[in-house]
Amino acid sequence: MRLFVDTHAHLGDPAFDADRDCVFARARDAGVTRIVEIADHPDEWARAVAIARARPESTRCALGLHPYYADRFDADFPARLRAALDAAPCAAAIGEIGLDFAKSSVSRETQRAAFKALAAAGRDWAIPLVIHCRDAYDDLLTILRELFTAPPTGRRFHGVVHCFSGTPEQARACAGLGFALGADGPVTYKKNDALREAFRSAGPDCAVLETDSPYLPPQTARGRRNEPSAIAEIAAKLAEVWSIGVDDVARITSRNAADLFAWP
Fold first, then answer.
1. What 3-state DSSP class applies to 135?
2. For 55, phi and psi rounded to 5 degrees?
3. Are 208 and 256 in contact (CB under 8 A)?
4. Tens digits of per-residue pLDDT, 56-89?
5. Local structure of residue 26 (DSSP, 8 states)
6. Is there a domain that residue 244 lies in?
7. What residue numbers bound the domain in which 190 lies?
8. Is 195 inside a domain boundary?
């Protein structure tokens, strides 16, 4: 049986309140054996930790501050984040954090300051980052090049650029700096040849699978709620992109995810 890892989901979202256990069951039936639950801001941290603690064999979580909420960052925030991470062994990463110049109402200057501080904290603490980037790849790469001047110590990745949407050149640059690339539903969309070319260019050894549930459903489910069981469609499209079998996609991306989150 093919075994997949969904490295980015929001199963604490109210969209799953009516059938959350069924969603996890369908994920298992689809071969999704591990899921990383993402908490976008402090109000969600406790819920993400609870979801992961309730499923210790299959679920970890990440605690962060989405660029939508970057104006909530202050001098005390890193200490609060570190305390929350230390209190939850199931917390495997910082995220999501990052830059969003497309939809966030927070100023770009504020976003950059918050992201840079949190990325530096993750580097210093040797905790992987889950990075959101939308219409901001030039700024993202400038910050990553400044902060991550050496390969990660004792691991393959500093973090992951979630739902990667950049160019082939930006894909190779992120991978070259020690960051995995998250492949989500958009890689299956009919008009996204440029995105598929970015993943082809970077290759499978830096890719991980994500659903971003309940958002970004793959092509066959567009307009409906997304969930981790849909990850096989993303894997099938990447198999076409890389001219390898779906079993190989599952094996390689699961290995990458294990390395990313130090999850044996």
1. coil
2. -135, 65
3. yes
4. 999 999 999 999 999 999 999 999 999 999 999 9
5. H
6. yes
7. 64-209+231-261
8. yes
Residue 55 lies in a domain: no
What is the C-alpha separation between 180 and 202, in angstroms, rounded? Answer: 10
pTM value is 0.97
- Contact between 248 and 235 under an 8 Å Cβ cutoff? The reply is no
What is the rounded CA–CA span in Å between residue 7 and residue 253?
10
Domain count, the chain: 1
CATH number, domain at 256?
A: 3.20.20.140
pLDDT of residue 235: 98
Q: Is position 161 within any domain?
A: yes
pLDDT of 1 strictly over 80: no
For residue 147 the two structure tokens come to: 């902060």
| 27 to 4, 53, 92, 112, 264: CA distances (angstroms) | 9, 17, 20, 36, 20
The 3-state DSSP class for residue 69 equals: helix
